[in-house]
Amino acid sequence: MPTKDSKQVDGTRRDDDVARSSAARDEQGGGGSELRRFAHPVSDELVLAAAERAERHKPRSEPGVMLGKVFAHMGFLYNGAATRQLRPRLDALFSVGEMEQTRRGSAKLLVLTDAGRERLVRARRSGESVELPESPQHRKWRRSRATAAERIEGYREELRALLDEADTLLENGTRSHSDLWFCLAERLPAPATNIGAAVYCLMEWPEPDDARPDVDDYSDPDDNNLDTEELERRRSLRMGRRNVIRGEIA
Which residue range is the domain that position 206 belongs to? Predict the structure, then answer.
């Protein structure tokens, strides 16, 4: 059960390391982090709104988010100095029952309470500014599209060069050493996968809706035309379409 204990907002060293590693992974790729250094002070309403959206964007519908996610939804980098600056604000929210802390396994989570949600509703109705910056999931979508547009032609050139090698080997017939074919087979999947991911990011990945989590379920509008076996194979292949194996698109 959640507890209002607020003695250690940043938790143990292990909690911090896990949360910061998660935040760092969220910001990899696409030209580096766009998050800013923490700007103090921030309003209670902004913290509550960030916690609310972070929870809403979780892949699984369950209460509680890590502190690093709250910072990311406010548009700030998560580190020890930022945590120390935000601690008094969090302590105040704990003390009035608008946020609570809980644990899930080894992770320490922040939970927005009903009182906190009601405060957000009142603030929005009264016209108070609780506008959040771009969400992490929309930032990832935007940056993936930009990276795909920047690199797709290079991926195509790489694949064309490999196909030219294949043509040469075919023309040589059985005179080509078998190792050349094995080496070519090893090199072909990467550029083909990168092109597929780039096409998906540019043309098929819908812009995320702020009202719900943007989770890839590996589906496609034409899936109804596939039999069960082929559908399973296609979904397996789609698992890397938002994160290319070699890491060019994040």
Answer: 137-240
Give the range among 21-30, 194-203, 231-240 with minimum mean pLDDT: 21-30
Q: How far apart are CA 155 and CA 241, in angstroms?
A: 14
pTM for the whole structure: 0.80
Residue 247 forms part of a structural domain: no
User: Does residue 129 share a domain with residue 143?
Assistant: no
What's the number of CA atoms in the CB half-sphere (13 Å) around residue 129? 3
Same domain, 123 and 179: no
Is the distance from CB of 35 to CB of 8 less than 8 angstroms? no
Co-location of 91 and 192 in the same domain? no
Last residue of a domain, one of 84, 109, 133: 133
Element housing 44 (H / E): helix 44-56
pLDDT at 129: 74
- What are 65's strand-pairing partners? 110
Q: Give the list of residues 6+ apart from residue 171 with CB closer than 8 angstroms, or none.
A: none
User: How many alpha carbons fall within 13 Å on the CB side of residue 19?
Assistant: 28
User: What is the per-residue pLDDT across 152-208, written as a single tens digit (0 to 9) for each?
Assistant: 999 999 999 999 999 999 999 999 999 999 999 999 999 999 999 999 999 999 999
Phi, psi (rounded to 5 degrees) for 104:
-130, 105
Beta strands in 60-112 (DSSP E): 99-104, 107-112
Beta carbons within 8 Å of 24's beta carbon, 6+ residues apart: none
Percent of all residues in the chain with a pLDDT value above 70, rounded to a whole number: 84
Beta carbons within 8 Å of 90's beta carbon, 6+ residues apart:
6, 9, 47, 99, 110
Task: Provide the pLDDT confidence category of residue 243 given band limits of 50, 70 and 90.
Answer: confident
